[in-house]
């Protein structure tokens, strides 16, 4: 592990003194760098933990959206403040939030990068080796916003033995793309910008659909555990993702999944995600089984 290092960054210090509803946060925020074999490079993540928590903590892996980062979740999503408020009010047990920086790979193993393996294997191994984090399915969940919402639901369904629950905030599910979708020059340019080669260059709709949450759910073995799913989006989302969520919810339920959904006010922005993050944490924490 000589290639890895742990630091409390300047951003972490700022996050640790933010206030939520007038109450200073007591969470410890730590940045860590580690070697990812899947990515073939150094990667980094942040952890947020109640400062005085003891014992092995359940873990929520929190994925960022396109062109975003762990730092934005801390600064604009108010992760530490929300965690502290809910723990102090005993609405959730003490838990750890892990925020990886993963670029724009859409959390799949594709031509652009092996982002899925980096999250499921390399990141989890480093977290569980270096922190008091639970290693069992009943103590592990995953969530994300926008691109990260797509990634969180898909990864949980691709690895149901690893995650007890998953949540999507304004999930970018792109439900209108089907294997036979005809892509003209204008659409191809847009898809190239959005997906950054994660599903092929040029964008391959068959490759995308084979890896979307619906098809991933339909490949679940009969005896595989089913993660509990929570989907939330806002009515005013500029990309009309509440409508996308409705379609994906129906498809996932048709595939035999239990899905809880919510529609809130707001747009596709940090104000919305910061507001719903408490509900997401409460949903996920309720699925953890005490050790």
Largest sheet: 9 strands, mixed
Order of helices and strands: EHEEEEEHHEHEHEHHHEHEH
Q: Under the CATH scheme, which class?
A: Alpha Beta
Distance between the termini: 29 Å
Tell me what the CATH architecture is.
Answer: 3-Layer(aba) Sandwich
Low-confidence stretches: 1-24
Number of strands: 11
Q: Radius of gyration from the CA trace?
A: 18 Å
Report on this model:
With 291 residues, the chain is an alpha/beta fold. It has a single domain (5-287), classed as Rossmann fold, CATH 3.40.50.1820. It has helices at 10-17, 70-75, 79-88, 115-130, 147-158, 185-195, 205-210, 213-218, 241-254, 270-287, and strands spanning 5-7, 19-20, 23-24, 27-36, 41-50, 59-63, 96-101, 140-145, 165-169, 228-234, 259-264. The strands form 2 sheets. It has a 9-stranded mixed sheet with strand order 1-4-5-7-6-8-9-10-11, with helices on both faces. Strands 2-3 form a two-stranded antiparallel sheet. Helix 3 packs across helix 10 (270-287).
Per-chain topology:
Layout: E1 5-7, H1 10-17, E2 19-20, E3 23-24, E4 27-36, E5 41-50, E6 59-63, H2 70-75, H3 79-88, E7 96-101, H4 115-130, E8 140-145, H5 147-158, E9 165-169, H6 185-195, H7 205-210, H8 213-218, E10 228-234, H9 241-254, E11 259-264, H10 270-287
Parallel strand pairs: 6-7, 6-8, 8-9, 9-10, 10-11
Antiparallel strand pairs: 1-4, 2-3, 4-5, 5-7
Helix pairs in contact: 3-10
